[in-house]
Prior knowledge:
By secondary structure, the protein is α/β, with parallel strands linked by helices. The chain has 15 helices and 22 strands. The structure holds ligand BES, manganese (II) ion and zinc ion (ZN).
Amino acid sequence: MEFTAIACNLLTKKTDCLVITLGSDAEDNPTLQSIDEATGGLVSRLKKSGDIKNTIGSSLLINEPTGLAADRLLLLGCSKNTLNEQSFLELTSGLAKKLTTLPINTACVSLDGLQVESRDEAWQAQHLSRQLEESSYLFNPFKSKEKKTTSLKKITLVTASRKVLDTLKKKLNVGRAIANGVNLARELGDLPGNICTPSYLANQARTLSKKHPKLSCKVLNEKQMKVLGMNALLSVTAGTDEPAKMVILEYRGGKPSEKPIVLVGKGVTFDSGGISLKPGAAMDEMKYDMCGAASVLGTFTTLVETELPINVVGIIPTVENMPSGTATKPGDIVKSMSGQTIEVLNTDAEGRLILCDALTYAGRYKPKSVIDIATLTGACVMALGSHASGVLSNDDALAAQLETAGQTSGDRVWRLPLWSEYDKQLKSNFADMANIGGRSAGTITAACFLGRFTKNYQWAHLDIAGTAWNSGDNKGATGRPVPLLTQYLLAHAGQ
Ligand code: BES
Ligand code: MN
Ligand code: ZN
């Protein structure tokens, strides 16, 4: 899709569909008033008759409206003149769903008369384009009868003020770039485990890096990981025939001397649980256990499209977790790259085993900060559901930056503590630590485990087990937390 912004007369604007919002007071909205006048009072009559409901999620489409140059007029209910962020996102996601199902090529959107608490027009523009582009996502490769994607190609945001045109255009493009990252993460998540293997993810990273001069890619194989001492990671891959990989992406947009931000994404392309086999119900959803990795690849897609002037490293440890005669057994002890030993009491707590070696490797970059992203614990789904990702951090400033980025992007997080009392639950009688911490506080003890490998830098852990995909009828990857991560990077780049 192409996005642009203009300041023009809506009445004479030729477009397949003109979109305007219905605030609480038409008097406050000159755009709405002028449309009402041009159409001979149509809008007022529809409001009075009750044909159009002024609530979020409702809209009314009018074909060939008289008095306007547009082919269609879409009246968008929004209940109030001033919305909070969440309601605005609900409104624009509804609009995106509506517009992408209409048989139109172009649309003109006016958000005149609509305010968002403590957010400006630029913020609105970024979310509008992001949601429209996200709505074009279609996962098709395995359906014999193909569904068609939207015909919508060009969206114009109409503004009352010429001064902001350049800013709006920029933000529309940022929003689209974020959506492209989100959509890549969704596609990788939705692909089944027999296609999206560790090698597949590595190839995706290579392909992306070849397209961009500022991006380079290195892939470590099992032999190289063995030399580095990554035995915790290798213990997870012991039961499968699929070769494990450690993918390293380096984006150089900043000065060479500038310390990088490192993103580490869990890439378990299928998590059967291993010898500690999972129950059968919904086990298919464990193909989504690589959504952390997918979010790193998605974020890098956005990064190269927006060409941010910062340095970012992406590290993706990727494996398949399967039971077999060669698989790691409960009670086995392994030595991690850091030198610390781990008693594997449950082979289904595999995410932390691959992440700990990746986090040790991340230390080599002398990073400014490290964020790992993982579908790590079912306990996080119980605690926060699907609305917020869990964040746990050894640095208050970093945690606060992520909370702010979550609020700005609508891709929110909620912080949980990392107190030493919880860490004690990882005690092992036979090794430096166990890989599980008992039944209580599973999300926190998992993060405490990772915290033992991140002592030398500022670090945050994002548990996305509840946010990375939807279950049920709506089953599919969400692309979260790409919006959160890109917002964090944007803020870091001063944008
Ligand atoms: N990938 C799972 C976490 C998960 C489970 C995410 C369900 C989303 C939905 C992870 O590898 C896992 O199995 N974690 C275990 C840890 C336990 C054995 C300590 C869990 O949460 O049950
Ligand atoms: Mn598991
Ligand atoms: Zn897992």
